[in-house]
Write a structure and sequence with these properties.
Length: 260
């Protein structure tokens, strides 16, 4: 544990200007780091395959995590005001940690060890994405495939909303939709498109005896024509007249539970 009083200290650079720095490396200002904030999320980061880089927080929070830190990982103790200056906004959770990204899983191996998967198309809201991962972890989904136009699940807000569970659910990002569907069907998955559009069958009529991949689209546009055409079956959550859809994370959670 090292106490730092100077917000300009270069040892705190991992945490500096987080509104830019935690973006993917291909985005302006992005360094591609994984940023966890708050005690429970940092603990899940420490228990994940993501290589931890550094910890920064107020004394009480850093002390609470000290025994869980791997050897050699620096822990910087700062005041609340110093923390706010470094990150660029007020942070009331008292502790942050940074990590490097883990390697993307091999697709064939990923599919081979999975029985229940979700495929996301165009889900570009970070909070919805974080909630989806939290639901996936809670309800037994083995992994997530993110096709083009999905947001980055390792963006700080997604990590926070997922309560760190995005760090424990394996995923493959930016896979072309057609490639994902072809690989799933070749591996023996039944692809079920979740959509209110007809023709579709009620969710509780879905055959779940084998390997199933649930295909979920963004709020508003839903699934594309390509996604719907590539699915083996269309399923819907029956709702009263006048209600045509649910929040994407809520709808996915209901479907995840049914897949159990």
């Amino acid at each position: 544990m090292t106490t730092i009083d100077d917000p300009g200290d270069p040892r705190l650079d991992d945490f500096r200007d987080l509104t830019l720095a935690d973006r993917r490396p291909d985005r302006p200002g992005g360094r591609g780091l994984v940023v966890a904030e708050g005690l429970p999320v940092v603990q899940r980061l420490l228990d994940s395959p993501y290589p931890i880089r550094a910890l920064m927080g107020v004394a009480a929070k850093v002390s609470a995590l000290r025994a869980e830190l791997p050897p050699g990982v620096p822990a910087y103790v700062v005041s609340s005001s110093t923390m706010d200056t470094v990150v660029g906004f007020h942070l009331n959770r008292g502790v942050l940690a940074t990590a490097d990204r883990a390697p993307v899983p091999d697709l064939a191996e990923f599919l081979g060890r999975s029985r229940r998967l979700v495929v996301l198309e165009g889900v570009n809201d970070h909070e919805n994405l974080g909630a989806l991962f939290r639901n996936a972890a809670a309800l037994g989904i083995d992994g997530v495939l993110l096709t083009e136009r999905c947001a980055d699940p390792l963006y700080r807000r997604s990590v926070r909303v997922s309560m760190g569970h995005v760090l424990r659910v394996p995923f493959i990002p930016e896979i072309p939709l057609r490639d994902a569907l072809d690989a799933l069907q070749t591996a023996g998955f039944r692809v079920a498109a979740l959509t209110p559009q007809e023709p579709s069958v009620p969710l509780d009529e879905l055959d779940t005896t084998g390997r199933v991949a649930l295909l979920v689209g963004a709020e508003g546009p839903g699934l594309s024509a390509t996604a719907l055409a590539g699915a083996d079956v269309r399923v819907r959550i029956p709702m009263p007249a006048g209600v045509d859809s649910l929040n994407v994370a809520t709808a996915a959670a209901i479907a995840f539970y049914q897949l159990r």
